[in-house]
């Protein structure tokens, strides 16, 4: 890979990380990750967080978005 291509790749990855970080902040503010069914265990020297329901909801939403995008691109 040429130096210019590596620069473009890093730029795109940086933009992607910025967008994902912004989405995580927004989702956290509306309560995503604190839904009923998300497991949070905290002890003296141990903490475990398993956002099971949040990840199921996110998976369903992303599946719908990707399927709609694929249908529009195939027309």
List the helices and strands and how they pair.
Layout lengths: L2 H27 L9 E4 L4 E4 L1 H23 L1
Structure in words:
The chain has two domains: 1-30; 33-75. The protein is built from two helices and two strands; from the N terminus they run H-E-E-H. The model has no long low-confidence stretch (mean pLDDT 90). The two termini are 34 Å apart. Strands 1-2 form a two-stranded antiparallel ribbon. It has 75 residues and is mostly helical.
What key phrases describe this protein's structure?
75 residues; two-stranded antiparallel ribbon
Short structural description:
This protein is mainly alpha-helical. It has 2 helices and 2 strands, in the order H-E-E-H. Helix content is 67%, strand content 11%.
Biggest sheet strand order reads 1-2
Helix content: 55-70%
Low-confidence stretches: none
Number of discrete helical segments: 2
**Shape field:** flat
Please compute the radius of gyration using only Cα atoms: 18 Å
Structural class: mainly alpha
Could you give the distance between the termini? 34 Å
Instruction: Classify the oligomer.
Output: single chain
